[in-house]
Amino acid sequence: MDGNGRWAVARGKSRTAGHLAGADAVRRTVEAAPDLGIDILTLYAFSSDNWRRPPEEVGALMRLLRRYLMAETGRCVENGVRVQVIGRRDRLASSLVREIESAERATARGEKLWLRIAVDYSARDAILRAAWRLSGGQLPGQPGNGNPADAGSAGASNAGVPHERRAPQPAAQISREEFSRLVADCPEQGAHDVDLLIRTGGEKRLSDFLLWECAYAELIFTERMWPDFGRADLEDAVLEFRHRERRFGTVPAAAAERAARSRSAITAGRDSGRNEADAEIAALAMP
Ligand code: FPP
What we know:
44% of the residues lie in helices and 11% in strands.
């Protein structure tokens, strides 16, 4: 949700006014998402590096988040929106943490849209924490899950061994799904792969957002400043996403289809097919 500051400065307003207008864009986007077939929406509201912004701006953003939760929780319940805040909570004001917990409790049954708001979030820290817990033999769902201080308490081979001397688990012993659960800090639901990532404000980078989850995300960078973002922009992005060919490391669909046709021609033993296939294979021959 980039561009709040520039949007405000261009209008002779304070950066805080830009964030305020950004909160309206959040409302529009949350309202539009379910109609466009989006069932999980993750918004990057405050990165762990954003603490380095001027204290007045940090304070304004935190107040805005609290105000948003207070004002929108009722509407979220009505509209079937489940709210979850991801990221660290230990550095947030207790009044904000209380509001987060209350919004999460009140909206827990929402099934139309899962709205995740990233606050004091860093993807690299999430991956680091997952690796740290893994090195202590702590797998998702085991006792003590969620508290790094408990890591290793359930690993039989590491029982009683000080953390720094515990044997790390070889990578092969954990699946991507299990590691996903560690990254998401969520034993029952892993870190969902991101299908589409949209960054507004013209910058073209990920800025430590959902790095593990974005392995195969389609990226859309738009010049639109976040406060101007709305339903039409989201529709355009979804339309572009639907036209993208997602290959996940395989070959393009057309090439795959051609290869399959060649293979079936060979299996069927049809002369013309064999010739076609042989010619194709010959063309691939390396000197
Ligand atoms: C980045 O733009 C934006 C942020 C750091 C804050 C995003 C916050 C909101 C959209 C409002 C509150 C959020 C919710 C969920 C209610 P920037 O300030 O870096 O813009 P710039 O690059 O133009 O300076």
